[in-house]
């Protein structure tokens, strides 16, 4: 019965190491997604430290690939040293992912204040020219999120660009996508997106941070199972070094 349990633990551990390799790719993808999305919204979010969870999660993803390799070799060969190293590294990565979750929640709570602090400055800096980074950012956000202005399209009336153009219109990025003849005129508000961008930008950034948090939590749970299986194999290996190897012909460390 004990031997069956050990063999099962070893089999699960090998399978988990394969999952670690898949997890490494997924975590790196999530981290890269956060970086790419941040680049689209960076004008509305000045605190670059919010990228720390993404940096950590990419580093964890890279480390998970190495962990999977160490775990597979240590489990198949039943190396006491290899398994102990595997458990220690998994524990350190687990602690790191807990830190990612905590930082994720901290920065998620800061998103609203950050956006509220910077969005008015960005809108006031709009000049309507494509080469201007702030103008491109606003047009991109308004088209992607289907919004107009900070709270609604009337916010454009208080901007420098609106007062300088004097044509009683908002940028064409405020026009509903289905309309081809929209000119952005405030005399036809039904042609414009009615929802403001601030709430939608906050929601988008908070969703992205939640992706990081859930990814870290999910793989932390898998790592806990990996540590448990490795400890079972390691303890049994220490008490009875003569028990059957997972692969016939393996050697002991």
Main sheet: strands, sense, barrel? none
- Taken as a percent bin, the fraction of beta residues is under 5%
Structural class: mainly alpha
Low-confidence stretches: 1-6, 242-253
Ends: how far apart?
A: 25 Å
The count of strands amounts to 0
User: Helical content, roughly?
Assistant: 55-70%
Q: What's the overall geometry?
A: elongated
Number of helices: 6
Instruction: Work out the radius of gyration.
Output: 26 Å
The H-and-E topology, N to C, reads as HHHHHH
Mean residue pLDDT = 78
How would you describe this protein?
With 253 residues, the protein is mainly α. It is built from six helices and no strands. The longest helix is centred in the middle third of the chain and has 45 residues. The N terminus and C terminus are likely disordered.
Helix and strand layout, with pairings?
Layout lengths: L1 H40 L10 H26 L2 H45 L8 H13 L14 H6 L31 H43 L14
Helix pairs in contact: 1-2, 1-6, 2-3, 2-6, 3-6
Quick structural overview:
With 253 residues, the protein is mainly α.
Highlighted features:
253 residues, mainly alpha, 6 helices, disordered N terminus
């Amino acid at each position: 019965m004990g031997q069956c349990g050990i063999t099962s633990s070893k089999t699960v551990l090998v399978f988990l190491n394969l999952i670690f390799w898949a997890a490494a790719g997924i975590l790196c993808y999530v981290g890269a997604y956060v970086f790419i999305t941040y680049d689209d919204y960076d004008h509305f979010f000045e605190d670059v430290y919010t990228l720390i969870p993404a940096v950590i999660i990419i580093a964890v993803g890279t480390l998970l690939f190495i962990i999977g390799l160490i775990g597979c070799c240590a489990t198949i060969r039943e190396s006491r040293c290899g398994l102990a190293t595997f458990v220690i590294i998994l524990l350190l990565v687990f602690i790191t992912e807990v830190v990612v979750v905590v930082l994720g929640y901290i920065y998620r709570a800061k998103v609203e204040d950050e956006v509220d602090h910077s969005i008015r400055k960005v809108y006031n800096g709009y000049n309507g020219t494509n080469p201007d980074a702030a103008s491109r950012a606003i047009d991109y956000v308004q088209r992607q999120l289907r919004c107009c202005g900070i709270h609604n399209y009337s916010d454009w009336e208080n901007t420098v660009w609106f007062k300088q153009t004097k044509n009683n219109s908002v940028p064409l990025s405020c026009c509903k996508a289905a309309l081809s003849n929209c000119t952005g005129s405030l005399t036809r508000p039904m042609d414009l997106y009615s929802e403001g961008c601030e709430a939608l930008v906050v929601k988008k950034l908070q969703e992205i941070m939640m992706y990081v948090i859930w990814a870290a939590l999910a793989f932390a749970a898998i790592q806990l199972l990996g540590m448990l299986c490795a400890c079972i194999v390691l303890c049994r290996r220490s008490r009875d070094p003569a028990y059957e190897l997972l692969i016939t012909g393996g050697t002991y460390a």
